[in-house]
Design goal:
Number of strands: 0
Oligomer: single chain
Low-confidence stretches: 55-59
Order of helices and strands: HHH
Radius of gyration: 20 Å
Helix content: 55-70%
Number of helices: 3
Length: about 60
């Protein structure tokens, strides 16, 4: 069990990292990801990506 002194000096896990919203994917990156998923036969991830695309289209 940790003592109170060491628990008080624990650093945050994201100290020194850039936080906040990331830039959206570019269209060429999306297509590169789709092609890679198709070549690897990762149907589930491909379906999730396509589902997300349809949800965005509804907004």
């Amino acid at each position: 069990m940790e003592s109170n002194a060491s628990a008080a000096h624990r650093e945050p896990w994201n100290k020194g990292k850039i936080v906040g919203q990331k830039a959206p994917f570019k269209l060429k990156d999306i297509w590169a990801l789709r092609i890679r998923l198709q070549m690897e036969g990762r149907v589930r991830e491909l379906a999730l990506q396509l589902g997300h695309r349809q949800q965005v289209a509804w907004l």
